[in-house]
Write a structure and sequence with these properties.
By secondary structure, the protein is an alpha/beta fold. It has three domains: about 100 residues, no CATH class; about 240 residues, Rossmann fold, CATH 3.40.50; about 80 residues, Alpha-Beta Complex (Aspartate Aminotransferase, domain 1). The protein contains 17 helices and 19 strands. Helix 2 crosses helix 4, helix 5 crosses helix 13 and helix 7 runs parallel beside helix 8. The longest helix has 29 residues. About 35% of the residues are buried.
Length: about 500
């Protein structure tokens, strides 16, 4: 190796000059790629590419194609060269980084607001320092060092610092609870929405004008996933609904007066998890695939959900109108709520910790619909001060009452109930069944487009059958020489 002292000074200056020239000859793209070499690149299971960037004493996660990541590249380049890079260099750099992550990067999940590992649940506080609440069986803490990746989306607002020593009962003064069943249903939905894995029961809040439906919806969402736009109207199409759900944690739809069938079907998949596909931007043959499972709240005056498959995944609560003498002005109400919010959040996180601790030992005599949800709430009952297994009774009563209301809004279901009540057991063909059911409804109903035909009656009964069983009616079909036969009977 050459001794630096023996190298003539003019040669040293020459080598330094050549190195500086090489640096000057680097393109802006090469410089940007070097700057980006310090970030961790990875892709998600659905092929989106992200960068995990060190910022001061924490990390931030951005989609490589996002405006935030482009701005980060511009700032880093400007810090060295005191001028911004040109647009083409940025595009070339992003194209290279996207390809590098796709072929060389690891695969990780990216979460919105709520995430989990095998032993903990993490809640993104949404603040500027990217802190999160870590909840384990031992308790909870606020930390900047956590093993999951969160992304930030438009409209996401920050949660306040939670504080210890609170009680979930403090929330009751801000909720218009008609009775204990409504209160327990609300608490259960909140606890379920703080899990990263569903299924998630849909919460429907109904009541007449002046019952604080929208206010209750805002409060519940603000405790889980606050947003600058807390309530939204009904989406225009399925694509809008799924993109909205994909970019938030809690979907909150306000002031609804019924649901189109496609909305009902989409909400079913959103509750228990489902895949959705839409065409990718600027392409003709490539699809963008989404797998989404989210908590959701809907509110309205009328019966919002009527299809039985959605009602089977739903908790419906009814709020009474608030008397004039008990009303409070908006400013003082929200001021008091925001003051209590840190204590309420701390109490919620303590309940989650107890549920994590108790869940392995929870046993139910029978597993209801949405069994994972009921097991989760049962695991928190001791800390809540509820009687053991009492929530399952509340949930099953709510489900039965909701299903009965749904059946009352369906003329075919009501006709089947009449048929079973009058006959005990009935057997016949599809033609005979449609004709027989027509006798129990008004003429305008049996001759409308919505009334089933001989061909569609089987599908209609398949959808109704689970709900009919809840109220003691069973529908069976079998093949006979004269075609498909239907049996309708009363059961215990």
């Amino acid at each position: 190796m050459k001794d630096i002292a023996s190298v003539p000074e003019n040669i040293i200056r020459l080598e330094k000059h050549e190195e500086e020239e090489r640096e000057l000859k680097k393109t802006q793209t090469e410089i940007l790629i070097e700057l980006a070499s310090k970030v961790e690149l990875f892709q998600t299971p659905d092929k989106e590419v992200y960068a995990r960037i060190p910022v001061k004493d924490h990390y931030e996660v951005y989609n490589v194609l996002s405006k935030s990541f482009k701005n980060w590249l511009i700032i880093k380049y400007y810090e060295i060269h005191t001028k911004p890079p040109n647009k083409q260099s940025i595009l070339d750099t992003i194209g290279y980084l996207e390809s590098k992550a796709m072929f060389e990067g690891t695969v990780k999940r990216v979460f919105v607001r709520v995430a989990s590992t095998e032993n903990a649940i993490y809640i993104d506080l949404g603040d500027d320092t990217w802190r999160a609440v870590e909840i384990t069986t031992r308790g909870w803490r606020v930390t900047s060092n956590y093993p999951v990746c969160f992304k930030r989306t438009g409209g996401m607002a920050a949660l306040p610092n939670p504080t210890s020593g609170g009680n979930i009962e403090e929330l009751r003064q801000f909720i218009n609870c008609a009775n204990e069943r409504v209160w327990r249903s609300i608490v259960a939905w909140l606890l379920s929405a703080l899990r990263s894995n569903g299924p998630f029961p849909l919460l429907i809040i109904q009541g007449e004008q002046g019952s604080a439906k929208s206010t209750t919806t805002k409060i519940l969402r603000s405790l889980i996933d606050p947003s600058s736009v807390p309530l939204c109207t009904a989406p225009k199409n399925e694509q809008d609904l799924i993109i909205r759900a994909y970019n938030t944690w809690v979907l909150a739809l306000d002031n609804l007066s019924g649901l189109y069938h496609w909305v009902s079907d989409a909400l079913c998949r959103l509750s228990t998890g489902g895949g959705f596909a839409t065409r990718s931007l600027f392409t003709n043959d490539e699809e963008k695939l989404f797998y989404v499972m989210r908590p959701a709240i809907l509110n309205g005056i009328d019966d919002i959900a009527t299809r039985q498959d959605l009602l089977d995944r739903t908790i419906v609560i009814y709020l009474k109108s608030i008397p004039e003498e008990l009303r409070r002005d908006e400013a003082s109400f929200w001021k008091e709520f925001e003051a209590a919010k840190p204590r309420i959040l701390g109490a919620l996180y303590t309940l989650i910790s107890s549920a994590l601790r108790n869940l392995p030992g929870v046993k139910l005599k029978r597993l209801p619909r949405m069994a994972d949800f009921v097991l989760w709430i049962t695991a928190a009952e001791t800390t809540l001060g509820w009687e053991p297994n009492s929530f399952q009774l509340v949930y099953e009563e709510n489900r039965k009452r909701t299903i009965e209301v749904g059946l009352e809004s369906d003329p075919v279901a009501m006709a089947i109930l009449e048929l079973a009540e009058n006959n005990g057991e009935w057997t016949g063909t599809a033609t005979e069944l449609v004709e027989c059911l027509s006798r129990f409804v008004p003429h305008r109903v049996s001759h409308s487009r919505k009334w089933p035909t001989n061909r569609s009656i089987k599908n209609r009964l398949t959808r109704l059958n689970p709900a009919l069983k809840v109220v003691g009616i069973e529908v069976e079909t079998f093949r006979a020489n004269n075609g498909r036969m239907f049996v309708i009977r009363k059961i215990s």
